[in-house]
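Quick one: structure tokens for this chain, please?
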Amino acid sequence: MKTLSNALHPLCFDRDAGRAELAGFVYLASEVLRTKDGRVAVYLTEAAQPEHVYKFVGPALVSARPGNGTLYAACFGDDGHGRWIPLTPSWPALHPWEAIPASGRELSRPHERARRVGASTIAGLFSVRARPSGGSLLLCDQPGEARVWREALADVGSLSFVWQGPALELPVCAYAAGTEAAPGGALAAA
């Protein structure tokens, strides 16, 4: 296993098994991608009962000093646009030392935090795959890619994306209120 980031809660990545662990929580993981500024990004989903799409963005692997990475959850908007919501602890903490245990609790139950912040829940999610400029979803009951997304500016470190693919029964996040979905999602028009 290779540790990608964060001395308090490192992301341990097992490339051969396609798994990662963060704060004791096990994920199915895509391959590691590089952001335009040299950081690393990995797409994740829960190993047991997958229902959310996550992205971990951490420092470049060339640094000997571990930095802090950020875990994000995907929110697929109904207009073909989406955003990555950071899964950070509830702030402000009453005392600075309360932030460390809060961070561990939040990261050890990311599915609960993802629901609280409004991330999309996807029934029947099987896994996520990395693509050079984004990712794709595979579902248990559907052959082929169910939904494909492309990160803004073709940078996997971006906090927004456009998607295309068949409609999934997703709770819709309020990303761009007042717009209607383009047929096939925004990627078709982009």
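The radius of gyration is 16 Å.
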